[in-house]
Design a protein that fits this description.
It is a single chain. This protein is of the alpha/beta class. It is built from seven helices and seven strands; from the N terminus they run E-E-E-E-H-E-H-E-E-H-H-H-H-H. The chain has helices at 52-56, 65-69, 102-108, 115-127, 132-142, 151-162, 165-170; strands spanning 2-9, 18-25, 38-43, 46-47, 63-64, 73-82, 96-100. The strands form three sheets. A three-stranded parallel sheet has the order 3-6-7. Strands 1-2 form a two-stranded antiparallel ribbon. A two-stranded antiparallel ribbon has the order 4-5. A hairpin with an 8-residue loop joins strand 1 and strand 2. It is globular.
Length: 174
């Protein structure tokens, strides 16, 4: 498989809105394709795509990733929600919705920074796009040598996400 990644990030250094698109294809990807609908969405938490003026307005709301991007997922797709931060409000009946307490699980593993790896493990298991073993074996390639001491923690986080009962129920293994 061929993979292309590109992202759009808000003005803040950390904690601002971000959108990452990953394209997976069977042949070489020469340029980012025009993507009008997504196969899946991982809504990790809250974003604040507001202007400075709107932020000063007390009535301006912070939106969840689902509220901002949920309508982009095509019927039959998957929406994965970090239920530690996003509660309810998922009104799509035409997609599979997988709610996982990713932040809580990362904290149980000893590091809140593992939240994306827990989520990736759940996503990989639910979609079968890539195996957990393949993700784990690629860590040494993807991480710079000075971060290799994090590999065992990332492997555990991937396993934890994949082993969630809700994921196993979604794919029919529970």
């Amino acid at each position: 498989k061929q993979v292309m990644h590109f992202g759009a990030y808000g003005g803040q250094m950390r904690g601002g809105p971000s959108e990452c698109t990953i394209i997976i294809g069977d042949r070489r990807l020469m340029q980012p394709p025009l993507v009008t609908q997504w196969s899946a969405l991982m809504a990790m938490g809250f974003t604040s795509p507001r202007t400075a003026r709107e932020q000063a307005d007390e009535e301006s709301e912070t939106k969840t990733g689902f509220e901002l991007y949920g309508n982009r997922v095509k019927p039959g797709g998957l929406i994965l929600i970090n239920s530690s931060l996003i509660h309810g409000g998922i009104d799509r009946q035409d997609v599979a919705v997988l709610e996982i307490p990713a932040t809580e699980l990362a904290e149980e593993l000893g590091n809140r920074m593992l939240v994306s790896m827990v989520t990736l493990g759940a996503f990989a298991e639910a979609t079968s796009l890539v195996t957990i073993k393949s993700l784990q074996s690629s860590l040494a390639e993807c991480l710079p040598p000075h971060h290799h001491h994090h590999i065992p923690f990332n492997e555990k986080a991937l396993d934890r996400g994949a082993d969630l009962r809700s994921v196993q129920e979604l794919i029919g293994h529970a």
